[in-house]
Amino acid sequence: MTIKYPVYQPNISGNEKKYVNECLNSTWISGKGKFIDKFEKDFAQFIGCSHAVAVCNGTVALHLALEALGIGDGDEVIVPTLTYVASVNAITYTGAKPIFVDSLADTWQVDPVDVRKKITGKTKAILCVHLYGHPCEMQRLVEIAKDHDLFLIEDCAEAIGSKYEGKHVGGFGDIATFSFYGNKTITTGEGGMVTTNNSTLYERIVHLKGQGLAKYREYWHDAIGYNYRMTNICAAIGLAQLERVNSIIEKKIEIANWYRKELNNTNIQFHSQAENIVHSYWMCTILLPENIDRQKLKIYLLENGIETRPMFYPVHTMPIYAQKYEEHKVAEALARRGMNLPSYPELSLADIKEIVKCIKSFENQFIIEE
Ligand SMILES: *Cc1c(COP(=O)(O)O)cnc(C)c1O
């Protein structure tokens, strides 16, 4: 069957080809080059932080953030269970233990009360995730981190363009990370960024990203580092994307508002928005009523050319992380009911109307008030 509306597709309508050709023509195609430098500089400026380091994906960005903070064996890192698995895997790579916390029912973000409850003598950091583009409650998380002398890491993979009290996410903790995977708000194909306002941490990130190369001696390595470099080609794409980031974000917010309006008279629920924030709507996600068979609806929509995704499964329920039985009731209920709708920037109001019409026609299952 043909898919008319995929969940996502990147918008590559700007200077991407021109910049990539510049890389090819100049032979600067590897992990050094002017597009990397410019992408890092402009990205830092966009986020409003002092330093940005381009890396090859969002997962290694998290790994570097944790390593730069010295997190490792025997440490505990608090993380929401309702996130993409990479947030948790990166903690595991360092030898530290992920400690799962539940989510808030309205904003779907990490529950600060549960964070406080899970702090032990081994806790070193809180890794918060601005899930689906809605910022976490940063004021409370910053306060908790301060009270307990913990590092705060922000996983902003889904949150470029998201603001908390007027300030872009990524500047509230010690280090933040971003992803530029193909379905993220801006993309480099595969790619990521680490940002910080701390110059010591910045130097450690650069050092670890490039094989732990000593600063003043060639081919001498004074740490076991990694090759986590981004290529100049990816950075060329990223720079062209960044030039259009504001219009992409505006369009995504518009799409979310269209869905909200068109589904307004049904018993489908929306991601609620706190007052003091800008939600950048990486994905437009709805909550289905408990009685709706999500898998059946998914197949029905697919038969009509509309692709959807379930919400992330809470990581504590995956066998690789379920050694100890845990319950996180809010996250589990959200994950059971959540569905991502097509959310890419080319969608028009007519497209949204067609998608919504199809959802509403599902076996007369939704309550629709006329
Ligand atoms: C996409 C994503 C990542 C990982 O990014 P990759 O670039 O795919 O490695 C990490 N955390 C969250 C919350 C994400 O959505």
UniProtKB/TrEMBL annotation:
Gene3D superfamilies: Aspartate Aminotransferase, domain 1, Type I PLP-dependent aspartate aminotransferase-like (Major domain). Its EC number is 2.6.1.102. This is GDP-perosamine synthase. CDD domains: AHBA_syn. PANTHER family: DTDP-4-AMINO-4,6-DIDEOXYGALACTOSE TRANSAMINASE, TRANSAMINASE. The keyword Transferase applies. The active site is at K184 (proton acceptor). Its cofactor is pyridoxal 5'-phosphate.
